[in-house]
Structure formats: C-alpha cells, structure tokens
Amino acid sequence: MLDKNGIAQRIAKEIKDGYYVNLGIGIPTLVANFIPEKMSVVLQSENGLLGMGPFPYEGEEDPDLINAGKQTITTLKGSAFFDSAMSFGMIRAQKIDLTILGAMEVSENGDIANWKIPGKLVKGMGGAMDLVASAKNIIVAMQHVNKAGESKLLPKCSLPLTGVNCVKKIVTELAVLDVLPQGGFKLLERAPGVSVDEIKAATAGKLIIEGDIPEMDF
Amino acid sequence: MLDKNGIAQRIAKEIKDGYYVNLGIGIPTLVANFIPEKMSVVLQSENGLLGMGPFPYEGEEDPDLINAGKQTITTLKGSAFFDSAMSFGMIRAQKIDLTILGAMEVSENGDIANWKIPGKLVKGMGGAMDLVASAKNIIVAMQHVNKAGESKLLPKCSLPLTGVNCVKKIVTELAVLDVLPQGGFKLLERAPGVSVDEIKAATAGKLIIEGDIPEMDF
Amino acid sequence: MINKVVANAETAIADIIDGMTLMLGGFGLCGIPENCISALVKKNILNLTCISNNAGVDDFGLGLMLKQRQLKKMIASYVGENAEFERQLLSGELEVELIPQGTLATRCMAAGYGMPAIFTPAGVGTEIAEGKEIRNFNGKDYLMELAFDADFALVKAWKGDTAGNLIYKATARNFNHVMAMAGKITIAEVEHLVPAGELDPDHIHTPGVFVQRIFEGKNYEKRIEQKTVRIR
Amino acid sequence: MINKVVANAETAIADIIDGMTLMLGGFGLCGIPENCISALVKKNILNLTCISNNAGVDDFGLGLMLKQRQLKKMIASYVGENAEFERQLLSGELEVELIPQGTLATRCMAAGYGMPAIFTPAGVGTEIAEGKEIRNFNGKDYLMELAFDADFALVKAWKGDTAGNLIYKATARNFNHVMAMAGKITIAEVEHLVPAGELDPDHIHTPGVFVQRIFEGKNYEKRIEQKTVRIR
User: Fold this and answer.
1) pTM above 0.95?
2) Which residues of D touch B71 (CB under 8 A)?
3) For chain D, is the Cβ count within 10 Å smaller at the N or the C terminus?
C-alpha cells in the first residue's frame, strides 16, 4: 500500500519531457517533488503563472507570489505571469498537457465529483470545473476508499459532479487504473504488497482485470 | 464654404476635455491639429495605441510605431501599447468617447456607407465596421456632395452599408447637421458664406430647418 | 494625458452606495484592494453584491465586510475557511453563487471586451449548467455564460501612473486586470503612483482608458495566507 | 524550462505543406514575420489560405507570396494598394474574404482562449451579416462569429526567450499576440533571442506555452509604408 508520497511518486512517472502540467491541491502538489531534474516540465498555477518553482527559503516569501493553493512559492527561469482570463484561456484551449487533481468520487465512465457534499458547507469549485472540462489528459490522485471505508470508484457518482467523461487515469494507495473510453476501470498495476482481491474488494464500479497484474515499478 | 482643414477645425470643437477619441483616415486625421493644447484628449489608434502624438522628426521614424493609417507617429507621455483584440475590446466596450470618420454616404436614419463601391475594387472595411457598430458618439467628416455633384446625405444609402443607425452628427464643407433619433438631418450651422438654400439643394435626404440657422463659429 | 488621480480611498468610493454591485480583484489575499475595502468598511455601505474569486478570511479582506454584514450576495469560485461566511450562509443572511473560476474570469473579460456572452465547457453536465443554454460546437458541449455587469470595479496594482495605466506584480495580477477592464467605473489603488510618462508603454498591463480613478494606497499589510518555506 | 528553439525559418516551416491555413501577424508591414515569409516564398508552398489583417505590398510581405500565386484564399480586413492582389482578385484566381478588423482579432483571441464563438455588433445590418446568426442581448443585436482554426500561426516579436516567451515592441504587437495564442502550431521569429530567465516574467506579452518554435530572425528590413514626418 502506498502513502501519499508514494501515490505522488507513481503519478510523476506519467509526466513526459516537455509537458505543461497543472497540479491540484493535496497529493497532486507532492508530485512536483518527484519529477526527474533532467526533464523539462513546466508547472502552471491557474492564478497566473507558468514556471512554478519550489517554496521560498524562510524570509524570502513574497506575498505577491503564491500558487493556486495560496502557498508562497518561487519562479523558475523562463517563467511568465498573466491574468486569470488568460490562464483559463490556455487551459480551455488545451495548451496544458496534463492535469492532476484529487477527487471524492470517480465513476466508471470517467465522471468526477470533488467539490460539494450536500448538507455540508460548500467551499466552491475553484478552477476544478474548468480544468476537468478542458484538459486533454486528467489523472486523479486519491484514496481508493473514503473514511467510512466505502469505495470511491463507483458505477455512478453519488455526489454532485465536477465534470463528465473526463478522467483518464486513477492512482490510489492500492492501484493504477485506466478509465476506458467505453466505461470501466481497467486495472493496470497493484501497489507493492496489495493483492488483486484487495483491489476488487475496494472497487464498487466495474473493474476490468486482464491477465497478470504487475506490481508498480518506481 | 470650408476646406478640409476647416471641416477638421469645426469638428475639433465637438471634442471635450477628458475624451478618448478615435480618428479615421483622411479629414479626421487633421482634427488632431485643432485640439486645444490645454485640453486633455487621448487619441486611440486601433492598431494598438492610446496616446498618439504628432509625426516624428525626420530621421526619428520608427517602423515599429505607426498609426492605423500606417503612418509613422510618436507617442505622448502616459501612452500604452496593446494588441488588436484588446484594442477592439475597448472599442466594443465603449471606452472610446468619440469616433470621427469619413463616409461615402449617410442616410437620414444614421446609416453609413464608406467601405465598398460595387463593381470597383474593394479594399476592405478595416476597423470601420467595428467602430460604427460600437461607438457611443460618431461624427462623420465628409464632402456634402460627391465628385459627380450628387448629394451624400440621402433618404437611404445606395452603397453597401458599414453600419446602421449610428451616425450622430455630420460636418461638411457646407454645414453642421445632427442626425435625429427619429430620422432626418437637422441643420445646425451654415459654413461661412453658405446659404440655407445652397444646403437644401445639396441635401437629398430629409432636411429639418428650424428658425434661423447661424453661421459656424470657430 | 487625462489625469485620473484622486486623493485617497474615501474620495474614490464616495459615490458607491447601498445595493450596488462591486467587483473586487485579488486571489485569496494576494492583490486585494486593501485601502478600498477599509474605506467601504468604515463607511458601512450595505446590501452589496460582491464579485470576487474569494471571500477573504475572518479578519481580513472581504471578511471585514462580511463581519459587518455589508454583503447581500457573494459571487465567487472558492470561499475558504471563514467562520463568519459559513454562519451567514447557513442562516440565510447571505446569498452565495459559486461559479467556476475560469467562468468568473472570462465573464469579467467579456464585460471589458464588450462581448455580451461567452461559451465555456466548464460545468457542462453538472448542476452549474441548470437553466443555462447549452450549445454544441464541433462535437463538444459549451455553456453560454453572460458578461458581468458591475457598477464599480475595485482593483489593486503595483504601479500606476496619473493617466490610469496599471502594472501588476507577479501573481497579484490575477483578477485585477480583467476586473479593471470590466467595471463601469474602475477604481485602482496602487503601491506606487508615478507621473504619466514614467512607465514604459510596452510594460503596461491595463491601459488607462479602463481606469476612471487612481490613488496611491497606504499601509499595505499584504497578509500571507499560507506561508510555506523550504529548508536552507 | 522547455526549449523551443529551432535553427532558422527553413527549419521552423519544414512541415508546412500545400493547402494549409496560416495566420500571419502584422499590421500593414509593421511587425510582419519577414523571415518566415521569405522561407515560404523560397519553398513555394501553394494553395495556402492566409489569415492576416493586410496583404502586404507588391514587392514585400504577403505580396511576395501573392506574386508567386501561392495563395488560394485570403482572409483580411483591409487590402491596400497592391496591383497583383487586384489582378488575381478580378481574374478569380484568388478567393478573398473581407471581415471587420475587430472580428478578425477577436476570432483569433477566441481560438487562443478555447472559445468556439464570440458575439460582436460589427457588421450587423450589413452584407457581412448574411448567413450569420444574429442574437439580441440587452436590446442590441450581435453577430455570432466562429473562432479561427489555423494550422500554423507565424508571428514576429521583438524579444523572445528559449522557453518561447515573447515581448513585442510598440505597435508591432498588433495581431502578433492574438495569433500567437491562436495557432495550433505557433512559430515565433524574434529580433533578439535570449536565454530563459533574461526576460522579466511581468513584462512578457505572450507566455511560452502558446509558442511551439522560436528562432532569431535575420536581415530585418522593417519597411515603412507611409513615412510621415514633421518639420523641425
């Protein structure tokens, strides 16, 4: 079973040289730590930055320089600032190659719910609805089951949707799965020490298992 | 009767302190020469400049700095450059207070034709259609009659239209006229030495004459 | 050049009255018009509809106006940890409309560019689409979203000149540029106000034609919401 | 940062083939991609559809491609004095679509911003509106105009860095910025190519994400169409 950093590390393997990537809040943010240094990858922050760098050293924080999670950050050489309309313009025009974000639920046809729990306080969707509606490639980073032990990979989402037919891949503490165009979660890899049966038990939606399922390779 | 500079000089009187103004090619360009120096007026050039200044001194022309008529120009203090989409954005959003342009024909309901003569080579509308469709206030600077001696102030335009119901005022070599919201050219002023009868004879559209018509005052 | 300078925030907001719709720039607490917010709080203008990406925190930014119950309605994309906001929302005192962040930004841009509506795929298939026109272009569904119509836009820039030209710093640009273009009347507060001619015309983000009033703000706190650092 | 540098115009345009749709930046002869045009002329790529505000003059700019009859169709807002253009138009060799300048710019922006269509009042009530959807918002009629769909955008900037970030000079920005955003593949030629990190991120007009290839151009002529001066 993977911890949060393990999930982030596995997702980092999906990033290719030359990619522009948008990382959501939570586990996706950790992915930045696992991108190989020799790779040219540019991180977009939807509040108006391409070329996001690491956190600043103590005392070097700039209140005018934050990421979409409102954390103080730095920029890398070759970065550019822009306004919010241009930021979502480039997202909508699919100039960002990969979006990685968290989810409360994903359905077997690629619907995602991650912004609202009816009856609980709603904080808002931020940029998530724009990102999932437009991104060419969307990977979800999340726990396989919720705190109540219920599967988050469902035949159909029970929570209000953020977007439809958009998630391409899911990485959890248990497994890596593709969401197939025709529907269904195709099991690709098991986390170290996790059995196919454990994944079956934790997946409520249609799970497709073909042949031997290898353990993840880092 | 006014010459081109006279028309420009009379139009300049319509410009108020604090106006942003777009000047078309031809007579409108001359208007800039008659704006009182103590007035704060900003000229927009739709190719991407606010704060257009006079022509440069010989040897100081910059090929990267032209106006919408492709003439070399200069900038004034406080000017700003922007792209073509933003330029027509501010035009469409009515941030420009006054547009002054030439015309081949104006109809008594304020339609304007100034871009195309069927059967002759068509050069294109440039920014004229955007300007007349959006401007809050449009003044036409033109000759009262065409080279064939036919009136250019018509009941209805015979040439393909540039815009409809948009011209507010017309200044010609003979007269200043308002285009009334309910239709009709209301005669406001005569050019020096020009009689009301001469204006009547040169105006094919509905001409409204109420009381004494004063001579222009410069 | 036209001079847009006013003395201070109090003068700038003098004609903002109860019941108006305001846009406020900023992302989180980054790039918010601190001086204008203080003046609105001091004057206690009520029943406002505020369009802003976020709603501040309990004791700063828009949170200060929430505390005084000056807001009738909030249009935002994300309303973070803010206990007073939560209380007013649950009690029904505050009307809240949550919309996607890109939709928020683009509806501002539409207003600034004189476009009455735009099309975006954000929210298709979700409850955001309810009651909205859906239109298919090239096989993909889009929602038609309308341009905002705000009485005032209150924005914050880093530098500005007397002609109203604005330059933002880093990610403090965010919604400030699009809102500056969108306001029927735009008030810009800047950290550094300079004479016309001191800013390079190629570096200007928001041309002065979009700005009706400008002043140099005072006592900027520029609070950091999430201070994150790395080890040296 | 991703390196977008290619050797020269010939390399940059290597995969542009007959029949493609190209956007070319510039206003008149100001800010045109001179090196790319030369390379297209040299390679004699044919049957092109070109989207550009103007069509150059007889012996410069797009006029050079016209002379070789490389264009099947021209989409522009104003086609000035150009005898060869006139001849091809009247003889039916060249298809010409004239559209309002703001519509041209905004259809580029729409493509760059992923918006399939925009609304503009330009052309309502004129022959430009024929066959187009007209829609009333708040009592005013607007035409719906579709985003452009160009295979390549060829733009010219003053400075650029290896990451593809672009800065334009003065009114040479014009259509270059919106076209750079709009191309499926955008090729930028710049007068000064610098290493990533040398441009101030606050001064960048077109972020590098919109640019796929960049190179430093050579032998810029930068011809002036209308030299106008005043007496000293």
Assistant:
1) yes
2) 226-228
3) C
Q: Quick check: D77 and B126 CB within 8 A?
A: yes
Closest CA relative to residue A70, chosen from B117, D112, C57: C57
Domain ranges across chain A = 4-208
The Cα–Cα gap between C130 and C140 comes to 17
pLDDT tens digit at each of 232 positions of chain D: 899 999 999 999 999 999 999 999 999 999 999 999 999 999 999 999 999 999 999 999 999 999 999 999 999 999 976 888 888 988 899 999 999 999 999 999 999 999 999 999 999 999 999 999 999 999 999 999 999 999 999 999 999 999 999 999 999 999 999 999 999 999 999 999 999 999 999 999 999 999 999 999 999 999 999 999 998 8
Dihedral of CA B44/B49/B53/B58: which sign? negative
What's the CA gap between C68 and A47, in Å, rounded?
Answer: 28
What residues of C are in contact with residue B136 (Cβ under 8 Å)? none
Nearest CA among A204, A157, D116 for reference residue C127:
A157
Q: Is C125 on the interface with D (CB under 8 A)?
A: no
Beta-carbon separation of B56 and D230 below 8 A: yes
Compute the distance between CA of residue B121 and CA of residue B137 in angstroms, rounded to an integer: 30
CB contact under 8 A, C114 and B91: yes
- Cβ-defined contact of D209 to A94 (cutoff 8 Å): no
C163 conformational bin, left if phi > 0, alpha if psi -120 to 50, beta if neither: alpha
> Any idea which residue has 């948009």 for tokens?
B166
**How many other CB atoms are found less than 10 A from the CB of residue B67?**
26
Chain A residues with beta carbon closer than 8 angstroms to that of C29: 63, 70
Q: Read off the amino acid at residue B11.
A: I
Strand-pair category, C134-137 with C140-146: antiparallel
H/E element, D135: strand D134-137
Q: How far apart are CA D21 and CA D48, in angstroms?
A: 6
User: Quick check: do C and D touch, 3+ CB pairs under 8 A?
Assistant: yes
Q: Which residues pair with C159 in a beta bridge?
A: C167, C192
Neighbours of B196 (CB within 10 A): 14
Q: Which residues of A touch D161 (CB under 8 A)?
A: 78
Catalytic residue among B14, B37, B46, B173: B46
Phi and psi (nearest 5°) for D147?
-60, 145
Whether the predicted interface score ipTM is above 0.95? yes
CATH topology of domain B4-208: Glutaconate Coenzyme A-transferase (3.40.1080)
Active site residue B46: yes
Structure tokens at B10: 């009379």
Instruction: Report the gap between the CA of C86 and the closest CA in chain A (Å).
Output: 7
Structure tokens at C170: 């880093």
